[in-house]
Amino acid sequence: MTASRPIAPEDHPQLLALNNEHAAELSLLQKNAFARLASQAFLARSIKTEAFIFAFDQDADYDSPNFLWFRQRYPRFVYVDRVVVAEAARGRGHARRLYDELFAAARESGQDRVVCEVNIRPSNAASDAFHERLGFLEVGRAEIHDGAKLVRYLERQL
């Protein structure tokens, strides 16, 4: 089993490319935005350059409409902004490992919930099924980006 590690600046180019290969499910990032997110994350970890996760707590300086939706409703939370696994690395348990590390870090910091969103439009059925297996439950829905996306907001109590 491959261990995860903190995301290092030298990983940024490859992980940014991985992010942008999945821009429909995540969102396209530029180099500076990726570095900013990595630097302010509650948790920013990767497994080689095959998978990574960015998660933020309620105090993050972040203006994502999805993050702000949770901030308006919960005083404390850890928000999964993005988790992605390279196509060639799928099925190796990378996403599960990253989430298990996130759950442990969130508990250690006194958090009681991890939240995220999954696209309904455009559909991200694989992510939806994965989050269901992890015990996430729907707590809301919203259209964002002028109706270009419809998302389900999910929560897992710790």
Automatic annotation (TrEMBL):
CDD domains in UniProt: NAT_SF
Pfam families: Acetyltransf_1 (PF00583)
Transmembrane segments: none
Sample GO molecular function, one term: acyltransferase activity, transferring groups other than amino-acyl groups
Domain N-acetyltransferase: 2-158
UniProt keyword annotations, A-Z: Acyltransferase, Transferase
PROSITE patterns tied to this protein: GNAT
Signal recorded as keyword: no
Protein name: GNAT family N-acetyltransferase
Species name: Plantimonas leprariae
